[in-house]
């Protein structure tokens, strides 16, 4: 089979309408969405509590107060800032292991 024939097969597959989702599938998707929202809010509250720590404890975590406040300002209330804070802490840990100065 030639490449052109395969492309035509894929185009035909995309043109076929899919049946609408069942009620159970919609409820499962809604449940997953609420679950991810709950996790994001929980992580947001945990990140907010980081802002209450003193500089020494934040430094032990590999973060600074300015970084925490900046991440919290950039993310919405339902966004999960934990991934960004984790990246910042890992970057600072790698810099420390290499003997580099922090930003």
Structure explained in plain terms:
The chain has one domain (22-98). It has 5 helices and no strands. It has helices spanning 3-15, 23-50, 55-61, 65-74, 82-98. The longest helix is centred in the middle third of the chain and has 28 residues, at 23-50. The mean pLDDT is 81.
Overall structural class, as computed from helix and strand content, comes to mainly alpha
Number of separate domains: 1
Strand content: under 5%
As residue ranges, the low-confidence spans are none
> Distance between termini?
57 Å
Sketch the topology as an H/E string, one letter per element: HHHHH
Q: How many whole angstroms does the radius of gyration measure?
A: 23 Å
Number of helical elements: 5
Q: Helical content, roughly?
A: over 70%
Major sheet description:
none
What's the total number of strands? 0
How confident is the prediction overall: mean pLDDT? 81
- Overall geometric form: elongated
Organism: Rhizobium rhizophilum
InterPro entries: YjiS-like (IPR009506)
Protein name: DUF1127 domain-containing protein
Pfam family, one: YjiS-like
What's a concise summary of this model?
By secondary structure, the chain is mostly helical.
Chart the SSEs and their pairings.
Blueprint lengths: L2 H13 L7 H28 L4 H7 L3 H10 L7 H17 L5
Pfam families: YjiS-like
InterPro entries: YjiS-like
Protein name: DUF1127 domain-containing protein
Features:
103 residues, DUF1127 domain-containing protein, mainly alpha, YjiS-like, 5 helices
């Amino acid at each position: 089979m030639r490449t052109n024939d395969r492309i035509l097969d894929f185009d035909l597959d995309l043109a076929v309408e899919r049946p609408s989702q069942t009620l159970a599938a919609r409820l499962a998707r809604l449940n997953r969405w609420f679950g991810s929202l709950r996790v994001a809010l929980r992580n947001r509250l945990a990140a907010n509590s980081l802002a209450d720590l003193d500089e020494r404890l934040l430094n032990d975590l590999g973060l600074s107060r300015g970084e925490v406040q900046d991440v919290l300002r950039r993310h919405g209330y339902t966004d999960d800032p934990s991934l960004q804070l984790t990246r910042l802490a890992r970057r600072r840990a790698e810099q420390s292991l290499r003997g580099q100065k922090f930003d």
